[in-house]
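quick one
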Amino acid sequence: MNKILITGGAGFLGSHLTEKLLKAGNDVLVVDNYFTGNKDNLAHLLPNPHLELMRHDVTFPLYVETDQIYNLACPASPVHYQYDPVQTTKTSVHGAINMLGLAKRTRARILQASTSEVYGDPEVHPQPEEYWGKVNPIGIRSCYDEGKRCAETLFFDYHRQHDLDIKVVRIFNTYGPRMHPNDGRVVSNFIVQALQGKDITIYGDGQQTRSFCYVDDLIDAMVAMMNTEKGFTGPVNIGNPGEFTMLQLAETVLKLSGSKSKIIHQSLPSDDPKQRQPNIDLAKAKLGWQPKVNLEDGLKETIAYFKKVIA
Ligand code: NAD
Ligand code: UDP
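structure w/ nicotinamide-adenine-dinucleotide:
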């Protein structure tokens, strides 16, 4: 049994990760400040004596004993990370410093939940890990993008300077049950709007693309990465290469939910990336992983979840 720390464990991805690691027989400590996370995401797991929850903000030091750390703490939706951008940067940067310090003291293996946002509005398509990205350092998305880039820098410097056992995954847009209904990200927005008969809000002309990964696939890859051989640090892209325009996504959600909602267009937020698709050759080779769930099947599961939540 491993003692595993998950920061941001009460959030969307963190709660699925907690569930998987408990099922595998580990001892899990979840640390979260509940900014976007929710105790309800973990309520069904609370009877398990091997789960412990701690309210804590990762921008402050943490002293616990642990064998592995999954560092997920950070709001991920643009609406949430732009609400208090200074805190977003602090969460990524001070949070990384604190968790890396903890890993150094305990000699724990540590995985960083990085993001496709490190590629910014990419000029290389699809994006391989070697691409350095095109990121605005002073825009409204920068608190998140640059915070995550700096966290990657810290991870690699701790690795080189202190021989820390690090793993970095770059997560592409992931969706599924337990996203918050007011999360603000596109999949949850479209589904909630469709189920409530409200207008579907496409930002801009809807020709921008994203590649959507179902949560179960993502969590499998994250755990596989944590358990790769020492010395393999990544970064590794994790995502589903199926690429869709936001217009295609809206039409698919309307079809699968049987909704009569109208599609409307609203202004495009600044620095919104025009295209995004992961090159997952490295994940296939090093993790023996590739996504199994296609967009329609994943959306059906997610729509069923939101039907229950909204009811
Ligand atoms: P989420 O907002 O549901 O979860 C983030 C969790 O971190 C929440 O529980 C929140 O309360 C917690 N948190 C935020 N600031 C904190 C702080 N200072 N101290 C302690 N806890 C804090 O988002 P998610 O989709 O589950 O994302 C989890 C991680 O994965 C994030 O680091 C995110 O950047 C990364 N990621 C997610 C996606 C995606 O599509 N879901 C894509 C790329 C990267
Ligand atoms: N988007 C949209 N309508 C919404 C929410 C988002 O058209 O109600 C668009 C957004 O402009 C972006 C894409 O959907 O082009 C994905 O947005 P999201 O916030 O989910 O993730 P990110 O931009 O961080 O990839």
